[in-house]
Amino acid sequence: RAKRQGRGRTRAFDTALSREVDRRLTLEADLRQAIERQELELAYQPLFDLSSDTLAGVEALIRWRHPSGTVRLPGSFLDVAEETGLIVPICEWVLATACTAARGWVPAAGPRFKLHLNHAACHLGDGQMTAHVQAALDSSGLDPGRVVVEVTESQVLTDFDEAHTALSALRALGVGVALDDFGTGYSSLTRLQRLPVDVVKLDGSFIEHLEHRDRDRDVVRSVIDLSHSLHAAVVGEGIETDDQQRVLRDLGCDLGQGFHLARPVGAAQVSAML
Ligand code: C2E
Ligand code: MG
Ligand code: MG
Ligand code: MG
């Protein structure tokens, strides 16, 4: 009986596994066509200067308008894109599209308006991102000083030396570098000072309980103070309430982003905001 149960479990596991393999194969095939069929879109989430309440930039966030009619968020397909190498043409498309849009916004934007772009997790070490960014800047005519490339703290922790090289190469192009989702790997706080970083984006998980958790407030305060002593600006991510916005501003946080301030919007809405 035990043996039969064991076999049953194995069979259930095999079924789950083959279902997952199927899902990935279908997703890969669909994703391959998504670029040609122009199903990919960019949403732009505004960043605001917390002291003046003015628009300080936008972050490009990828969306996939699937033929089934649903809009897929990056968390549901970027992993497969990275495993299959499809992230490379997708990344090129994102950079070219966003830089061209931003070039159009520049005449109406203030001098401090920046375009934030997310660095894919997989190819931090191969230098491809630097080449892609350079190509997008060349083809769009966008000033490198208008661009900030975001790399997550966990990407940096995977291989610190590799990350250091990649961030330095990006900076040599004249673009800024941001540490995204900062605080999720708190141990690296002291390593921050060895990285060439212009902006630190405090992860939303620290902001969530900011109003009533003293410990979170202490952590946020120390990250803000350390960042400032390294001449990096700080962005609070995932601001969902007025109280969170106020506490961050009072702690000296420079910029804010979150549903309370603005949801991701289309390119035409960014033009309208400017
Ligand atoms: P991220 O760079 O940390 O982007 C912020 C994510 O938080 C976005 O989700 C955004 O919609 C969401 N968000 C913003 N404000 C709030 C808020 O107030 N509350 C909550 N709960 N969420 C908020 P999204 O668009 O699903 O993107 C998820 C992640 O996918 C991004 O995290 C980024 O790492 C990655 N990603 C997005 N676009 C691209 C891309 O073009 N290339 C690459 N390589 N990665 C991308
Ligand atoms: Mg980001
Ligand atoms: Mg983030
Ligand atoms: Mg985040």
TrEMBL record:
It comes from the Bacteria. Residues 24-274 form the EAL domain. This is GGDEF-domain containing protein.
